[in-house]
C-alpha cells in the first residue's frame, strides 16, 4: 500500500516537474518568437527606409539636372522645342511671364500634344499660386522651385517648376522614364523576403518574381513623401526563420523532458531497489531468528533425551552428543555469519597447514552429511601450507559445505579437494546436485539473493552466506568462483601460497 502511495506521489511530482519545464519552455519560445518578430520588424523598417532614400535620391538627381539645364536654357521657342525633342526626361514644358502663358504660344498653331498639355495646365495658368500650395514654406520666404503633382486620365503627372525673376518655367517629367530609371537601378537583394513598390495600388516594382498573397498583411509598409506621396513600399518578411526556431525549441524541450523522465525513472528504480533491500534485511532478521531457533531447539531436545537415557544400559549417548555438537557448531557458524556481515574484524595471519585444516573440517561435517545420506570425500594433492587467517579460511569452506548439504543433498556426494601451483592454493567444494542456470550463477554472490527454484523450496536461508564467503576470500587477497559442471556446482577458493 505504501509502495502504491509513493508511486502516485512520484508520478505527481514528475508530472509537475515536466509541466514546469514545458511551461518555462513555452514562455521561452514565446519570448524568442516576440524577439524574432521585433527583429524582423526592425529589419523590414530599415530596408523600407533604404529603398525610400534610394527613390528620393533618384528624383533628387533629376531635380538637380533640371535646375542645371535652366542655367543655360534659352527661352526662345526654337531652343525649348529642341530641348523637349532631345531630352527623354522632359515630355513638355511651359513658360509663364507675368502670370501669362508665353510658351507654348496659344496664339500660334499647336499640335495635338501641345493642345492637350495647355488644357492640362490651365489651372496653373489661371492661378500660378497653386504651384506652391504643397511646398513647405515660412511666412517670410516663398520657395523659388518645387514639385507639382496632378492627374491626367488617372495617370500621375509630375511637374518640376522654377521661378526666375518674373518668369516661371515648368517641366513635365516623363513618368515612364522616372519609373524605368528607378527600377533598373535598384539592386537590393532581400531574398527570401519580398519588397513591393506600388502607386495607388498598381504594382510598379516587385523584388521577387513569384506571386505573393495579396490578402496577407505586409510586415512593414510606408508611403513616400511629396511629390511621390501616392507611392507606397510594402515589405513582406519570410516566415521560414520562425519554423527553425520552433523546431529547435520543441526538440530541445523534448530532449529535456526525456532526460527528466529518464532521471526520474532511474530514481524510482533506485528507490525500489533500496526498498527491496530494506525488505530483504527485515526478512533476513526473521530468517536468522528462525535459523537460530531450530538448532537451539535440537540442542535442548537432545540434551533432555541424553539426560533421560543416562541410566539406560544400552545408551546412544555418543550419537546424541554428536548431534548436539554438530548443531552447536552450526549455530556458531550462523552467528559468525551475522557478525561478519555487519563488521570486518582484523586479519590474524599465521602459518596454516591446509591438509590438517581440511581434515578437521571433514571430520566436523561428516556426521551431518551422513545423516542425510551424503558421502563427503576429501582429496588433497601433496602437503599444502600457506600464511593466512585460519578462521577465515575455515568459515569460507564451512559456508560452502553448508550450502552443499542444504541444496545438493539429492546428489548424494560432495567432494572437498585441494591442490596448488607455483603461486596459489586451490580449495574446491564440488557437489553433484542439479546446478544453476548461467543467469542465476551471475547473482549468487549478491547480498540477500536466493535462487527461486525447486532446490530451495522448503529450505530456509538468509542469502548472505556466499556474500560473506566472497568478502572473506577477497580480504585474504584471494578469489572465490562458482562454475557449472556436468552435474552440480563447483566452488573454487584461490588464495596465495605466501
Automatic annotation (TrEMBL):
Record-linked Gene3D superfamilies: 1.10.287.130, Histidine kinase-like ATPase, C-terminal domain (3.30.565.10)
Entry-linked Pfam families: HATPase_c, HisKA
EC category name: transferase
Segments passing through the bilayer: 7-26, 245-268
Keyword annotations: Kinase, Membrane, Phosphoprotein, Transferase, Transmembrane, Transmembrane helix, Two-component regulatory system
Record SUPFAM superfamilies: ATPase domain of HSP90 chaperone/DNA topoisomerase II/histidine kinase, Homodimeric domain of signal transducing histidine kinase
UniProt xrefs under InterPro entries: HATPase_C_sf, HATPase_dom, His_kinase_dom, HisK_dim/P_dom, HisK_dim/P_sf, Sig_transdc_His_kin-like_C
Any one GO molecular-function label of the UniProt entry: phosphorelay sensor kinase activity
Catalytic reactions of this protein: ATP + protein L-histidine = ADP + protein N-phospho-L-histidine
EC assignment: 2.7.13.3
Domain Histidine kinase: 287-498
Protein name (record): histidine kinase
Amino acid at each position: 500500500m505504501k509502495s502504491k502511495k509513493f508511486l502516485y506521489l512520484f508520478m505527481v511530482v514528475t508530472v509537475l516537474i515536466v509541466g514546469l519545464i514545458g511551461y518555462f519552455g513555452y514562455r521561452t519560445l514565446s519570448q524568442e518568437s516576440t524577439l524574432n518578430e521585433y527583429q524582423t520588424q526592425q529589419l523590414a523598417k530599415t530596408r523600407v527606409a533604404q529603398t525610400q532614400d534610394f527613390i528620393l535620391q533618384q528624383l533628387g538627381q533629376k531635380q538637380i539636372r533640371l535646375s542645371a539645364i535652366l542655367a543655360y536654357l534659352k527661352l526662345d521657342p526654337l531652343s525649348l522645342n529642341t530641348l523637349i525633342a532631345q531630352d527623354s526626361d522632359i515630355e513638355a514644358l511651359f513658360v509663364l511671364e507675368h502670370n501669362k502663358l508665353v510658351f507654348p504660344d496659344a496664339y500660334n498653331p499647336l499640335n495635338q500634344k501641345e493642345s492637350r498639355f495647355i488644357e492640362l495646365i490651365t489651372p496653373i495658368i489661371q492661378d500660378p499660386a497653386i504651384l506652391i500650395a504643397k511646398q513647405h514654406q515660412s511666412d517670410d520666404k516663398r520657395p523659388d522651385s518645387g514639385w507639382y503633382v496632378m492627374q491626367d486620365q488617372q495617370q500621375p503627372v509630375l511637374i518640376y517648376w522654377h521661378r526666375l525673376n518674373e518668369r516661371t518655367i515648368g517641366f513635365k517629367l516623363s513618368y515612364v522614364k522616372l519609373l524605368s530609371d528607378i527600377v533598373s537601378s535598384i539592386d537590393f537583394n532581400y531574398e527570401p523576403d519580398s519588397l513591393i513598390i506600388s502607386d495607388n495600388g498598381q504594382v510598379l516594382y516587385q523584388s521577387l518574381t513569384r506571386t505573393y498573397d495579396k490578402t496577407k498583411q505586409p510586415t512593414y509598409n510606408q508611403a513616400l513623401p511629396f511629390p511621390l506621396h501616392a507611392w507606397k513600399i510594402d515589405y513582406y518578411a519570410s516566415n521560414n526563420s520562425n519554423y527553425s526556431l520552433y523546431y529547435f525549441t520543441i526538440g530541445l524541450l523534448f530532449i529535456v523532458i526525456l532526460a527528466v523522465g529518464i532521471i526520474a525513472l532511474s530514481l524510482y528504480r533506485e528507490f525500489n531497489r533500496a526498498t527491496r533491500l530494506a525488505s530483504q534485511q527485515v526478512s533476513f532478521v526473521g530468517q536468522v531468528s528462525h535459523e537460530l531457533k531450530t538448532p537451539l531447539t535440537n540442542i535442548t531436545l537432545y540434551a533432555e533425551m541424553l539426560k533421560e537415557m543416562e541410566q539406560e544400559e544400552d545408551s546412544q549417548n555418543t550419537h546424541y552428543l554428536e548431534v548436539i555438537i554438530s548443531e552447536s557448531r552450526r549455530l556458531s557458524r550462523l552467528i559468525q555469519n551475522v557478525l561478519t556481515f555487519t563488521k570486518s574484524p582484523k586479519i590474524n595471519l599465521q602459518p596454516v597447514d591446509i591438509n590438517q585444516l581440511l581434515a578437521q573440517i571433514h571430520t566436523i561435517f561428516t556426521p551431518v552429511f551422513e545423516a542425510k545420506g551424503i558421502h563427503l570425500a576429501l582429496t588433497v594433492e601433496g602437503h599444502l601450507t600457506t600464511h593466512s587467517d585460519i578462521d577465515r579460511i575455515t568459515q569460507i569452506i564451512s559456508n560452502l559445505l553448508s550450502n552443499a548439504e542444504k541444496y545438493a543433498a539429492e546428489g548424494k556426494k560432495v567432494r572437498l579437494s585441494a591442490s596448488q601451483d607455483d603461486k596459489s592454493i586451490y580449495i574446491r567444494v564440488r557437489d553433484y546436485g542439479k546446478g544453476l542456470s548461467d543467469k542465476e550463477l551471475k547473482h549468487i554472490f549478491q547480498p540477500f539473493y536466493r535462487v527461486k527454484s525447486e532446490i530451495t523450496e522448503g529450505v530456509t536461508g538468509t542469502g548472505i552466506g556466499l556474500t560473506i564467503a566472497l568478502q572473506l576470500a577477497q580480504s585474504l587477497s584471494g578469489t572465490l568462483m562458482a562454475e557449472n559442471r556436468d552435474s552440480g556446482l563447483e566452488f573454487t577458493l584461490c588464495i596465495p601460497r605466501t
